[in-house]
Each structure stands twice: as structure tokens, then as C-alpha cells.
Write a structure and sequence with these properties.
alpha/beta; 7-stranded parallel sheet; 6-stranded parallel sheet; 15 helices; about 15% strand; globular
Length: about 375
């Protein structure tokens, strides 16, 4: 079945849509951004989110007020193991359960934003003749994307380089990564005013992703104690990740108050803090990099070495090769290198401004709007 793939055709209809994604917040946040844009255009549209059973990331959608159903799935190992037999069994049973969810909900369209939970749901929807869309945020597509991309109605990409890794290209569109509306609403001036930052203040934001990163935590805490907590006109907030916070708080009580350098368990107000920041030190998930580009902020990127297919290294290298960010691998955090780089940027406003301009050139604004227009085009075409 062929569907119209042009941007909105001028006719908008109430949409019944299933969004799915899971494994990390990086898979769920794009779904939330798309849901926000759908509701902004038409509050009567009906949205169901399907996530991975037991996934903490599902809380993002439920806190936002969206209905939730879950499927029990798990990933496959690259080598032959007993775990893979269980994963296969779960995939088969999840596909049956996905079919029941689809038949009960009767969606106009199903969209996946990544993670193993997308496989059974989009596969079942395609077999039932429901229009299907898949969004890939990383440059190098994961296994789920590579398997599903030939079968979906429309494949949405953050980066055109991803085309090199896909077998089918006629159903693809490069749209960028959808960001939550907060990134569009708040200005740098307003964000800095809320944090009471002066014109001369240099604000550093650092974090290791939604679950944190032990090696990055230790390196940043060392920087806080030896530099950013003492340097004049420097403010520093670091998100440790909830699983590390209690232990770090116990031994680093001086960083838990309202001082110049402080730790928090999780960076809740990311849009505001990124907009206010002069320097960001972070992991390199695709959504984080899109947020950094939208904010236009000088960045030190530390890819996780524990990600499937080395996604984060590939994501970060695309920016570092373009001289749009500084990349440091985790093993380089030992010693003084991180402090040296942060100190250099603190005292070099011209270098910060140059990096900010370069990373800003990677921004793809209004991705959520473009995606929803495509969804409306497909659903309108299918109803005719």
C-alpha cells in the first residue's frame, strides 16, 4: 500500500495514533515531543503509548498524561546464547499481544522511535495494513531499524548519513530529531535570568545521561573540587544519575548545597539549563546532541563505551570531525585532561563562541512539526 509522503496537504483530521519506544529516555523523549505537537495542533487527537514492560522510561509518558500499554521484550546477543532463544520466544508472544492492542485500539497510524519494543508492534501493524512510521535518531541505525526500515511505510532520519546503512531508501525522509516544545519557547537571556547568572558568569552543565556514568561522575567531581567550585564567576551543576547520587552525596556533602558547584541526582529542566549554559559536558546520545545543537552551546562530549554498535562514538565523531565539539573518550578522563579543557574554555570566550556557532549549524529546527505534517499526510491519504 502506498501513502502520500509530502508534507501536510492542507487537510488535517483527528488522529488515533500509537507511539512506541523503549530502552532509554532517548527513545521515549522523541515520542513525547511528537505527542506534544499532535496535541498542540488538535487536542482531540487520541494517543496511546506502548513501551517495554518494566521500563522506567515509560514514566516519562505517563507523567505527561498519556495512556500506556507495555510489551515484554528483550534484546538479542550477537553470539548464539540461550538468552537469544528466550528473546525469540518473547518477540513471538509480544507480536501476538501487539496485534491484540492494535485491533482493540484501531489506530490510524503507528509510529516507533526506537528500541526492541518497536519490532513486534510495527511488524504487527504492517501485517494488519496499518500505516507505519519509524524514526531513527542515531547516525548508525540499530538492529531494530535495519530490520524494520524495508517494511515500514515511512522511515524518518535525523541524519542523511544513515542512508548509507539502509537497504531501502525510497521511503526515507531526513527531518532531524523532534525536541520538546520547551526548547523552542525559552531564550538564553530568560534562562540565565532564572538562574540569576550575571553577564560575566560562566555556567557549566554536566551530566552522564538519564542513568548516570560512574567514570564521568568521578572526573567531573574532581574538576568541581579543584577548579569550578573555586574559580571566580564560574557556576557548575552536575547530574550524577539517580543510582549514583546517594553514595556521592554521602561522601561529597559540600557539593549538595547551593554553592557555586553542586550535584543533583537528575537534570530535570534540561531546556532551561542548556539554554543558560556556556559549557556542557555530556554523553553523546543522539537526542542530547540535537538538544546541544538547538541550544548552540560549546560542548565536551564523552561517549559511553557501553552502547550497542558504538552509537555514541559515531554520533560524537560527526561533530568533532566538523570541529563543532570536543570529543574525549572515557579513558582520557583519567588525570588532568578534562579539567584542562574546561579551564581553557572558561577563559576563552572566543573559543566558546566559535564552538557554539559550529554546533548550531547542525540544528534541524521544527522536526516535530515536520513529522506531524507527514503523519497527517499519510493518514489523510489512507482514509481517502
Amino acid at each position: 500500500m502506498l501513502f502520500a509522503l509530502a508534507y501536510g496537504d492542507g487537510m488535517e483530521t483527528n488522529m488515533r495514533i500509537i507511539l512506541c519506544g523503549g530502552g532509554t529516555a532517548g527513545h521515549v523523549n522523541p515520542a513525547l515531543a511528537i505527542a506534544e505537537e499532535i496535541k498542540r495542533r488538535d487536542e482531540h487527537s487520541d494517543i496511546l503509548f506502548v513501551g517495554r514492560s518494566g521500563g522506567d522510561e515509560n514514566n516519562i509518558m505517563t507523567r505527561a498524561g498519556y495512556a500506556l500499554k507495555t510489551l515484554t521484550v528483550q534484546g538479542f546477543d550477537r553470539r548464539i546464547t540461550l538468552k537469544n532463544l528466550k528473546s525469540l520466544g518473547l518477540a513471538i508472544s509480544a507480536t501476538r499481544e501487539a496485534r491484540k492492542i492494535i485491533r482493540s485500539y484501531e489506530p490510524d497510524i503507528v509510529l516507533g522511535t526506537g528500541g526492541y519494543v518497536c519490532w513486534p508492534l510495527l511488524r504487527a501493524a504492517a501485517r494488519l495494513g496499518i500505516p507505519t512510521v519509524l524514526h531513527e535518531s542515531n547516525i548508525y541505525p540499530g538492529l531494530t531499524t535495519r530490520l524494520l526500515s524495508p517494511k515500514v511505510s515511512l522511515m524518518l532520519l535525523n541524519n542523511g548519513k544513515t542512508l548509507e546503512y539502509l537497504k531501502r531508501r525510497d521511503n526515507t525522509r531526513v527531518v532531524g530529531n523532534p525536541l520538546r516544545c520547551d526548547f523552542e519557547k525559552i531564550s538564553r537571556q530568560a534562562a540565565r535570568a532564572r538562574l540569576a547568572l550575571g553577564e560575566r558568569d560562566v555556567f557549566i552543565l554536566s551530566f552522564g545521561g538519564s542513568i548516570g556514568a560512574a567514570v564521568l561522575n568521578e572526573a567531573v567531581i574532581k574538576v568541581m573540587k579543584e577548579f569550578s567550585g573555586k574559580a571566580p564567576h564560574v557556576r557548575h551543576i552536575h547530574g550524577t544519575g539517580r543510582r549514583f547520587y546517594d553514595e556521592i552525596r554521602t561522601r561529597e556533602r559540600s557539593l549538595c548545597g547551593e554553592g557555586k558547584a553542586k550535584i543533583v541526582p537528575y537534570v530535570e529542566n534540561v531546556p532551561e539549563l542548556m539554554r543558560a549554559a556556556d559549557i556542557v559536558v555530556s554523553r553523546c546520545g543522539a537526542m542530547t546532541l540535537s538538544e546541544l545543537a538547538a541550544a548552540g552551546v560549546a560542548s565536551i562530549l564523552v561517549p559511553s563505551p557501553n552502547v550497542t554498535d558504538n552509537h555514541q562514538v559515531k554520533n560524537a565523531r560527526a561533530l568533532s570531525d566538523a570541529d563543532a565539539a570536543i570529543m574525549m573518550e572515557e579513558h582520557e578522563l583519567v588525570g588532568e585532561k578534562l579539567r584542562t579543557e574546561i579551564s581553557r574554555l572558561v577563559y576563552s570566550p572566543k573559543e566558546r563562541a566559535r564552538l557554539a556557532r559550529r554546533i548550531k549549524s547542525f540544528d534541524k529546527p521544527n522536526a516535530a512539526s515536520k513529522i506531524v505534517e507527514l503523519l497527517q499526510g499519510i493518514t489523510n491519504s489512507a482514509k481517502q
